[in-house]
Hints:
Number of strands: 8
Low-confidence stretches: 35-45, 66-74
Strand content: 5-15%
Amino acid sequence: LVALLRRILSVDAARRPASPRELLAALESCRAQFVSPNQSVFRRASRRWAALLAVAAILAGALLAFRPLRQKASSSPPPPQKSIAVLPFDNLSKDEENAFFAGGVQDEILSNLAKIADLKVISRTSVMQYKNTATRNLREIAQELGVAHVLEGSVQRVANRVRVNAQLIDARTDTHIWAEHYDRELADVFAIQSEIARAIADQLQAKISAGEKAAVAERPTGDLVAYDLYVRATSLIDKAGFKSRKDYFKEYLQAVELLNQAIARDPTFLLAYCRLAEAHDTLYLQKHDDPPARLALANSAINAAFRLKPDSGEAHLARAMHLYFGYFDYDHARDELALAVRTLPNNARIFEWTGYIDRRQGRWHDAARNLERASELDPRNAKVLLQTALTYNLMSYYGRARKTLDRLIALEPNDNNHLLFHAWIDVAERADTRPLHAVIEKMLRDDPELAGELVQHRLFLARAEHDPVAADRALAALTENTFGTRNGMVKISRYYVQGLVARMKGDTVAARVAFTAASAQQEEAVRARPDDGSVLCVLGLIDAALGRKEEALREGRHAVELLPVAKNAMDGPDVLYFYAVICAWTGERDLAIEQLQTLAKIPGGQSYGELRLDPEWDSLRGDPRFEKIVASLKPR
């Protein structure tokens, strides 16, 4: 009861119950625990009355507490006094190549300030979106970033000299509270950056520990050419996410080359090793060229960084990502992030990746809180906003998911995927397909070439509405041999989709031909990845469709064993969901209901819309147990 009261009264909105249904479920759980079967009848009755009184008190308090807390959360709080955004510095050099150098100066000042725990410093991803802005409304920018102060400036590099102008502005009042001009030898550029960071910290009256002072004074490298190569590589990595797949790999490979050149010039360049490890890990994850070799190269770069500085926060962050990407070692990755945040308190990526690990380990409220923290430090990072919305959606916190998506749509209004996601929330929460139809129709009107990208959505609608004509149209637009279903982790083939559509049309012969072809293809995939539950569960689905009951159930069970929810709370529910489908298709109604009862209780398990609309469950409709599960998910 005390723990529940703390949740209800928490200042952190992510910790409070998101709906009356969630609150009632928590209250019922508390009430049930008051009664022990080993107690006497009298003591059970007494405790039951005590529990009911406590529950009534909590309900009364909750009803009073919910409204003001919700209202407070909905209005934007004032930014912290000790908060700052370091905007991109203007390049005043005649040589445009020095634009990278100007970016490096700004980035190093930002990095130095971010090492001070008493400050809130906005991450690079968000501030770089104001580069090349013709006119800057600093008050609006500060409001968008959630800070009280902004630092702007300019850099001019002439021969062996560098001139840096910097000014600190209180954006709330448009007051210039500090300005300085530096004209020195080029070799002093890192000293200038450290001096500016210390001056800003003094102006904001930030407390700085001895360790933080040393970190701010530390030079990333003694070789300016190596630093220039590093800045160019970092810029390529940051931009790669907005490129096509072909250009994505090109940018990363070029970044690897630049970082190797930087390290060749300065073998003690720790930051270069860390970004090099990240680049190799990303190429490994995307299965580019030789994945095992990429993983080994990443590991080698991380080891080099730790040899240089065992307590480096950047090295611990690089190792955390390496453990997450390469080995799915979430426990040790979490340990590395806990070490990294000690020296990188404003690094949004630490909170972002901690949130991802939280999701994998089923710590959903912690995941939401960490992703929200990452968003506070990096408020214009589309990836973080998208993952935050996805987390809330999987938790069935649909209102919060919509609000986060609204921020994302405002940031990237031309990205149709955000509109699709928004429409899918209506499908999940209310089984309402109209918004999804509207978005798809608009996208196809605007660009008919998008038909191939919309197959998954169109196929779901066609099957949900038992429309074979629409299903044929969706199938005709399919350009890929495989595509993700549900949350994207489980991949299905063209043959499998053809089998579903043929069965929907009642053409059992065509369905069997398609599923047989899908089976041969999937068996090959299972041989290549025998320990991948997501691949094995699809083979189970195909065998179920072909009437191979024992094989299908065996494969479904083994898939769940390979990827249980307890091991991976993000992907495990997908495999369990499809095992339930296998049970339903093979006539094991009791077993299917058992899986659905479990899925109904976990984030990402299933939604009201899925159970209401998906024809996978047609064989269970009318079963009181199934209808009870559907009713439990219905929005109130």
